[in-house]
């Protein structure tokens, strides 16, 4: 018997949700019942990211991957204390992004931190996690041929990761260098199309779930910069609230904070998932809304 394509995609997104929820704890439900939805828009906050056009980036080559783990590098000691800059060079055949670090005294670091990199192809994200707790970068529009936007969120353990939101199918390699300490992300066009894209709205990025069929319980993962880190998740059918949850993101003042919550809706069929916050001015919802199909 052949597997149905929808079932295959749903299984892939379930596995992705479990991977993305590794940094944070589930939240307790709240009792808010507002159902008004806001239009999703892109937001960018202050950043010191710099770009460098031109150059000879050096393409990934034969070692490039289209999915899964790209790098797991452990450093027994490192003087890298802060993400100081993210820059890039590129041409139509290759793009290279570099993450640079400084010491606790503000000098260029010589040894990179421990780094893990994974290609989350289902949602078109290349994620670089690292053992540093400070950053001068929050997010930046890249708008290159392959990368749309870059975010720097924090996990509950205070460490940071950098998400490269990709705008076109790519292959990638991730390496590190010393003196100066850098993480180098090399991209070239290639590989299958991305199944979905994260929903980006005012102060919230929803990575999973994506539009379409979901499993119950619904695992909600992303990052936000809502006021006081408050993040709400709500599933509605018309005027009926099927499930609602509340959590506190890992940050909101210094950079984006990752959140994770679990919703168990009492219903089935077509519904809407809202993730965001309630406006302090008028109580309206502010965030993203996506259509989902409950089993």
Describe the structure.
The protein is mainly beta and 295 residues long. The protein folds into two domains: 130 residues, Sandwich (Immunoglobulin-like); 129 residues, Immunoglobulin-like (Sandwich), CATH 2.60.40. It contains one helix and 21 strands. The strands form four sheets. Strands 1-4-5-10-8-7 form a six-stranded antiparallel sheet, with no helix packed on it. Strand 2 and strand 3 form a beta hairpin. The longest helix is centred in the N-terminal third of the chain and has 16 residues. The protein is globular. The N terminus is likely disordered.
Q: How would you summarize what this structure contains?
A:
The chain is mainly β. The protein contains 1 helix and 21 strands.
Tell me, briefly, the overall form: globular
Q: List the helices and strands in order.
A: HEEEEEEEEEEEEEEEEEEEEE
The percent of residues in helical segments reads: under 10%
| CATH top level class name of the largest domain | Mainly Beta
């Amino acid at each position: 018997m052949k597997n149905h394509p929808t079932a295959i995609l749903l299984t892939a997104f379930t596995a992705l949700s479990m991977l993305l929820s590794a940094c944070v704890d589930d939240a307790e439900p709240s009792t808010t019942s507002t159902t008004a939805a806001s239009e999703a828009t892109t937001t960018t906050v202050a950043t010191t990211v710099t770009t460098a056009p031109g150059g000879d980036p050096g393409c990934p080559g034969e070692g490039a991957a289209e999915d899964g783990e790209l790098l797991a590098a452990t450093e027994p000691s490192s003087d890298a204390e802060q993400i100081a800059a993210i820059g890039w060079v590129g041409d139509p055949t290759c793009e290279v992004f570099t993450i640079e670090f400084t010491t606790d005294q503000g000098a260029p670091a010589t040894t990179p931190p421990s780094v893990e990199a994974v290609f989350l192809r289902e949602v078109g994200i290349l994620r670089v996690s690292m053992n540093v707790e400070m950053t001068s970068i929050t997010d930046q529009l890249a708008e290159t041929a392959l990368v749309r936007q870059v975010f720097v969120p924090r996990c509950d353990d205070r460490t940071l990761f950098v998400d490269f939101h990709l705008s076109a199918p790519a292959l990638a390699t991730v390496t590190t260098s010393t003196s100066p300490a850098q993480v180098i992300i090399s991209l070239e066009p290639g590989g299958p199309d991305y199944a979905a894209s994260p929903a980006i709205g005012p102060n919230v990025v929803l990575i999973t779930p994506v539009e379409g069929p979901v499993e119950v319980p619904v695992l909600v993962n992303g990052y936000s910069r809502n006021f006081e880190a408050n993040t709400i998740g709500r599933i509605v059918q018309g005027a009926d609230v099927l499930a609602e949850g509340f959590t506190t993101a890992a940050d909101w003042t210094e950079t984006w904070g990752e959140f994770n919550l679990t919703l168990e809706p009492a219903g089935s069929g077509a519904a809407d998932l809202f993730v965001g916050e309630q406006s302090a001015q008028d109580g309206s919802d502010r965030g993203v809304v996506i259509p989902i199909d409950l089993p």
